[in-house]
Specification:
de novo design (two linked rop proteins)
Amino acid sequence: MATTDQPLAPLEGEASPGDTAPRRHLGAWLEMLLSSLVGLTASLVLSIDAIRLAENPNADLSCNISATISCGTVGTSWQASLLGFPNAFLGLMFEAVVIAFAVAGLAQVRFPRWYMLGVQGLYVIALVFAYWLFFQAYFVIGAMCPWCLAITFTTLLVFTSMTRINILQGNFGDGVKRRLEPLLRYYVDVYSSIIIIAIIAAMVIVRYG
């Protein structure tokens, strides 16, 4: 009987030996978990600072490094309480939910498509809000809060990981998956996040030293 050394083709739904999608999928959930943990820490510190500022607007906060690198200056602005209470309280709620969501994802819980798209939509709003706050601090308030900057970065990372998961799971549709999944193999999403973070860091350094 003739034999062949050709490898067997993978079954439908089975990852091929060179397939990076399962690894990228797991990495996205892990990135989401770590980013949201950092975001929760920053939100907790900002929430405590918001309470201190409510008691004493002139309170000396640990991140009040200078006149322009100052959580106090940003925290006493109207932008810091856009909905009538400190924005950091929103972070405490949402970051805790994202942590639970990421842990479930790492445990290979498969959420319905409508749920995943709903979470994606919420994080679009969160990303717009975070970067609106950054531009307000940078161009209007004229001061930068280090903990706020951390949330700006982590919100981007969670949004990127959420988008990667939805692409790999085909939640945006098979057509979108076919077009974008090859880009994920070249880590375009990762490089895009790095470039955006580098640009923001450069903006802060140029203006505030």
